[in-house]
Structure formats: structure tokens, C-alpha cells
Amino acid sequence: MAETNVPSLLQARYGTAADFVAAGGGDGGGNSTVETLLQHRSVRHYLPEKLPAGSLETIVAAAQSAATSSNLQTWSVIALEDPERKDKAATLCGDQDFIRHAPLFLIFCADLNRLTKASRSTGCAARGSSSPRCSS
């Protein structure tokens, strides 16, 4: 297997990679995905430029292509670019100033509306209905 940088990434993130590996955490086994995840950082200082045209749609399409439980896609996204709306969102989110300064702020919400509509269209308004055609 390919050698990875996982032990040094564990050391940087958690302090003692040797203890983690000794406790059964492993070294990532040459898995580049593990290495990528351990390199994750949150960035909250954004450039003021807007996204190029079509980028938001592409990003949302990629997110919609990700696997979800039973492929239900029970989420919606709200895109905020208007400064007043971003200010309200920042206030509602514990006064997180980075929201105000980001050119675009995406809010991902659990959304069971599609699931509810699908249930109603099949005559199964609620999960657990006693109707034989509603059980799965």
C-alpha cells in the first residue's frame, strides 16, 4: 500500500499520533480519503468576489448527487447574497460575523416536504400506516 501522511496529520490534529495508532486507530492504510479528511480546515475569511455565473448551480447539483438515506434527498438549500438577509442570518446564528462578509451564504435545511408529498400521492399520509400497500 502507498505510504500516507496520516500519522503526522494525526499528530498535528490530536497531539500524539503514536497513542492513537496504538489504540487501534490505524495509519489510514494508504487511504487518501482519510488523509484528505484529516487535512480539513474551516475558512471563514472570504474574498469579496461573487461566484462566476453557473457555479452555484453546479455546486448544488453536485450536492444533490451525493448519496442520502434511501436517496430521499430530504434537504433544501437557501442561497443568501443580499446584505440585509445575511445580516439577519448572522444575528440568528449567534452573531457570526463571517456570514455578513461572505459574498454568498448557503443554508442547508432538513426538508421533509418531498417525502410528505410522495406519501400523500400514494395514499400513505403517514409512515406506519396499517394499509398493506403502505408497508415496506
TrEMBL record:
UniProt KW Acetylation keyword: no
The species this protein was found in: Xylaria grammica
InterPro entries: Flavin_OxRdtase_Frp, Nitroreductase, Nitroreductase-like
Full protein name: Nitroreductase domain-containing protein
Record SUPFAM superfamilies: FMN-dependent nitroreductase-like
Lineage summary: Eukaryota, Fungi, Dikarya, Ascomycota, Pezizomycotina
Domain spans labelled Nitroreductase: 38-110
One Pfam family here: Nitroreductase
Family: Belongs to the flavin oxidoreductase frp family.
A GO MF label: oxidoreductase activity
Keywords recorded for this protein, A-Z: Flavoprotein, FMN, Oxidoreductase
